[in-house]
């Protein structure tokens, strides 16, 4: 399959299949974390890990649980953090590196549906649910991001009596409540999707699509949200990520007359705005599309994106890495190709370390028409090349890679699996493995 890139990126493109593969660390057996969906992953400086999960079979409001592991150890059984509550409908929750949980719910108060938040300490004590949206009118579709430090940003659609707008509020690390909300956008559709990302020092990014244009509002640490910035005129999909130091990345798939275009807008630490999106890849109008993507950011200005391009025969998986504020300098081709890909998820670490995970189709079993996937991972050490792909865990009817992280001695992969033969009647299972 032929792919067109910017001239500068194409000049330095390399095939990972042709690089000397670094030996991979043997992966630990996957550990089952419960019949849940992974929502967040936080790694403490000492290597302790916390995985936050929504549960199944809990009625109107899903319970939220956290599974924790000491450095290098297996996960302890998940502990219930937020129980089902018919009055408050849990919308989003995330866990910090301390094990603290921040959650946002919707509740009817005074005739209006309001966004409300609570903070749950590792010992189970919690703050009262407090309204974070504007009191006068209704809110809908809250979204939440929680940094390892405990900083959090929530964004939602806010009605002003005539139209809907995007609004957001910040929760400083250690605070019992969110700061006052701010309106970020002009009028938007009631169905507008909003995405959020946050760094450890209070840098935050809220993005949304109005009509066909993708906008982003940036909040530098200890400052207010700036004016919305138009990133793409004909956006189809996007993903945003922010590193603890405030390095940010927004990967965008947009439309052009020639087909789909992949671009990346990056924010250097301390910058007041995102840089202009740089084109990384372009699909052919008639036969090739860009369908899956995942943005990544790491301290020190490292940004990246993993994406899949497809034609009539197969998917191909690519990775770009660069620095915020610089032109694209390297596009890596993984050599991975198949008829479908679930994922991918990319994480960057210090010194050029990286891990990439996705769900790859498993070979068809004789006489069994059921399609199955297998979790697949590639790693790259600092200064080295991506190693050979590793297959982890069972073949499952469905795999969704939820979150990945680079650790001091390897990487951690979390994924959601579904298989009624492997996991029983409910079928769902959250899983984690160190590689």
Task: Summarize this structure briefly.
Helix content is 2%, strand content 53%.
Look at the structure and give the mean pLDDT: 85
> Domains counted in the coordinates: how many?
2
Name the poorly predicted regions: 1-23, 57-61
Per the CATH scheme, the topology name of the largest domain is Tachylectin-2, Chain A
CATH domain class name of the largest domain: Mainly Beta
* Integer-rounded radius of gyration: 21 Å
Under the CATH scheme, which architecture of the largest domain would be assigned? 5 Propeller
The best one-word shape is globular
Strand neighbour order, sheet with most strands: 1-26-25-24-23
Task: Please summarize the sheet with the most strands.
Answer: 5 strands, mixed
Strand content: over 45%
Helix content: under 10%
N-end to C-end Cα span: 31 Å
Q: By helix and strand content, what is the structural category?
A: mainly beta
The number of distinct helices, counting runs of at least 4 residues, comes to 2
Number of strands: 33
Could you characterize the architecture of this molecule?
By secondary structure, the chain is mainly β. The chain has 2 domains: 1-34 and 243-435, Tachylectin-2, Chain A; 81-233, no CATH class. It has 2 helices and 33 strands. The strands form 8 sheets. The protein has a 5-stranded mixed beta sheet, with no helix packed on it. Strand 23 and strand 24 (302-310) form a beta hairpin. The protein is globular, with a radius of gyration of 21 Å. The protein starts with 6 loop residues before the first helix and ends with a strand. Mean pLDDT is 85; it is low at 1-23 and 57-61.
């Amino acid at each position: 399959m032929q792919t067109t890139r910017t001239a500068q990126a194409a000049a330095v493109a390399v095939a990972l299949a042709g690089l000397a593969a670094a030996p991979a660390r043997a992966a630990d057996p996957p550990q089952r974390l419960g019949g849940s969906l992974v929502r967040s992953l936080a790694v403490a400086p000492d290597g302790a890990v916390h995985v936050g999960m929504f549960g199944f079979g809990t009625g109107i409001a899903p319970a939220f649980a956290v599974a924790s592991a000491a450095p290098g150890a297996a996960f302890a059984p998940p502990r219930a953090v937020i129980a089902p509550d018919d009055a408050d409908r849990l919308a989003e929750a995330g866990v910090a590196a301390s094990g603290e949980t921040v959650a946002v719910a919707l509740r009817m108060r005074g005739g209006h549906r309001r966004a409300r938040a609570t903070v749950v300490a590792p010992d189970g004590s919690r703050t009262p649910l407090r309204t974070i949206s504007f009191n006068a009118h209704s809110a809908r579709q809250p979204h939440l991001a929680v940094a390892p430090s405990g900083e959090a940003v929530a964004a939602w659609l806010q009605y002003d009596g005539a139209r809907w707008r995007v609004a957001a509020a910040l929760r400083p690390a250690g605070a019992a409540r969110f700061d006052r909300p701010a309106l970020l956008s002009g009028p938007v559709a009631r169905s507008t999707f909003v995405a959020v990302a946050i760094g450890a020092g209070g840098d935050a990014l809220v993005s949304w699509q109005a009509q066909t244009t993708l906008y982003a509002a940036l909040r530098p640490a200890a400052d207010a949200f700036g004016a919305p910035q138009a990133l793409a005129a004909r956006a189809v999909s996007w993903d945003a990520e922010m590193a603890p130091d405030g390095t940010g990345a927004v990967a965008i798939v947009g439309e052009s007359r020639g087909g789909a275009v992949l671009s990346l807008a990056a924010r250097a630490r301390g910058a007041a705005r995102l840089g202009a999106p740089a084109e990384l890849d372009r699909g052919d109008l008639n036969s090739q599309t860009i369908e899956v993507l995942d943005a990544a950011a790491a301290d020190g200005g490292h940004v990246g994106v993993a994406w899949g391009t497809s034609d009539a025969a197969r998917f191909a998986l690519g990775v770009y890495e660069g620095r915020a504020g610089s032109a694209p300098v390297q596009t890596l081709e993984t050599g991975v190709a198949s008829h479908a890909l679930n994922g991918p998820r990319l994480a960057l670490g210090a010194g050029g370390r990286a891990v990439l995970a996705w769900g790859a189709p498993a070979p068809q079993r004789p006489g069994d028409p059921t399609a199955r996937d297998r979790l697949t991972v590639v790693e790259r050490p600092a200064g080295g090349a991506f190693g050979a792909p590793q297959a982890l865990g069972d073949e499952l009817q469905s795999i969704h890679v939820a979150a990945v992280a680079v650790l001091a001695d390897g990487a951690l992969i979390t994924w959601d699996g579904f298989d009624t033969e492997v996991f029983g009647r409910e079928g769902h299972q959250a899983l984690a493995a160190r590689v």
